[in-house]
């Protein structure tokens, strides 16, 4: 691993993340959140929150408000059921994604109505502008369609036509990589990447990462992601 690679890719081991165990919710925080504060982990580019949540069966988050934030939920196992003050209702299953633009204000609830633990990443991205009409959307993304490549799942850019829409200068990508295979991703100068292998061990430009570690990466040059074990990758590319 070169000095240049080490200086632009920071490993954040899973064990170093903020931790809160509420019984029904076992949460790890990649960035400062609730009672976890780390001035070095306030945000990364436009990414403000990346929570790794395990939600117990028949439990969840009761109605609560948000405003001026783009909130993305990537379900890893199980399913989450959404309900909000706009009248939206929906159930998002493993591998699929839901997005909520909080805008001027919205109340929502997220429940695990299943008989098994649901695991998910909840990611908050700072919007490009405050205000706007709140909205919610969800979409299935079969994992087979992203085998061996990174696919854009949510995006604030018009060219990503198949992705869920967010109002931020950012995109969420997901992919599954078999052991021994590699994918390359190129982010422009001034971009900030945050990558987490949901499952499996990987290397990024030769630097090893365990499942659920975080990688904070400075853009401006391609990165190569190699799966040491079969891996599921989640990546946010933001300003």
In short:
This protein has 239 residues and is mostly beta strands.
Features:
single chain; 239 residues; mainly beta; 7-stranded mixed β-sheet; 22 strands
Instruction: Provide a count of the helices.
Output: 1
Between the first and last Cα atoms, what is the distance in angstroms?
26 Å
Mean pLDDT: 96
- Class computed from helices, strands and strand pairing: mainly beta
Q: Percent of residues in beta strands?
A: over 45%
Helix amount: under 10%
Rg over CA atoms: 17 Å
For the biggest sheet, the summary is: 7 strands, mixed
DSSP strand tally: 22
Poorly predicted residue ranges? none
Helix-strand pattern, N to C?
HEEEEEEEEEEEEEEEEEEEEEE
Overall form: globular
Widest β-sheet, arrangement of strands: 1-20-17-22-15-13-14
Domain Quercetin 2,3-dioxygenase C-terminal cupin: 154-237
Protein name: Pirin family protein
Pfam family, one: Pirin_C_2
Family: Belongs to the pirin family.
Kindly describe this structure:
With 239 residues, the protein is mostly beta strands. 3% of the residues lie in helices and 53% in strands. The protein is built from one helix and 22 strands. It has one helix at 3-8; strands at residues 9-12, 18-21, 25-29, 47-55, 59-66, 70-77, 79-84, 89-93, 97-101, 106-112, 118-125, 135-139, 151-155, 164-165, 170-177, 182-186, 192-199, 202-204, 207-209, 214-218, 222-227, 231-238. The strands form four sheets. Strands 1-20-17-22-15-13-14 form a seven-stranded mixed beta sheet. The protein has a seven-stranded antiparallel beta sheet with strand order 2-3-4-11-6-9-12, with no helix packed on it. The chain has a four-stranded antiparallel beta sheet with strand order 5-10-7-8, with no helix packed on it. The protein is globular, with a radius of gyration of 17 Å. The model has no long low-confidence stretch (mean pLDDT 96).
């Amino acid at each position: 691993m070169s000095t240049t690679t080490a200086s632009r890719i920071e490993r954040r081991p899973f064990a170093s993340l903020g931790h809160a165990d509420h019984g029904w919710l076992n949460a790890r925080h990649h960035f400062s959140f609730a009672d976890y504060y780390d001035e070095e982990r306030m945000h990364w580019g436009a990414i403000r929150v990346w929570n790794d949540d395990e939600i117990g069966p028949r439990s969840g988050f009761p109605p609560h408000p948000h405003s001026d934030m783009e909130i993305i939920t990537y379900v890893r196992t199980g399913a989450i059921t959404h309900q909000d003050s706009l009248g939206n209702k929906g159930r998002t299953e493993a591998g699929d994604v839901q997005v909520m633009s909080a805008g001027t204000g919205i109340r929502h609830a997220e429940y695990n109505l299943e008989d098994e633990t649901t695991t998910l990443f909840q990611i908050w991205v700072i919007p490009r502008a405050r205000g706007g009409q709140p909205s919610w959307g969800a979409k299935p993304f079969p994992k087979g369609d992203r085998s061996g490549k990174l696919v854009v799942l949510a995006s604030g850019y018009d060219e990503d036509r198949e992705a869920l829409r967010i109002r931020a200068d950012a995109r969420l990508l997901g992919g599954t990589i078999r052991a021994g295979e590699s994918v390359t991703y190129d982010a422009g100068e001034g971009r900030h990447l945050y990558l987490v292998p949901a499952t499996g061990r990987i290397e990024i430009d030769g630097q090893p990462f365990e499942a659920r570690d975080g990688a904070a990466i400075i853009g401006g040059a391609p990165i190569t992601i190699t799966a040491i074990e079969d891996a599921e990758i989640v990546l946010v590319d933001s300003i």
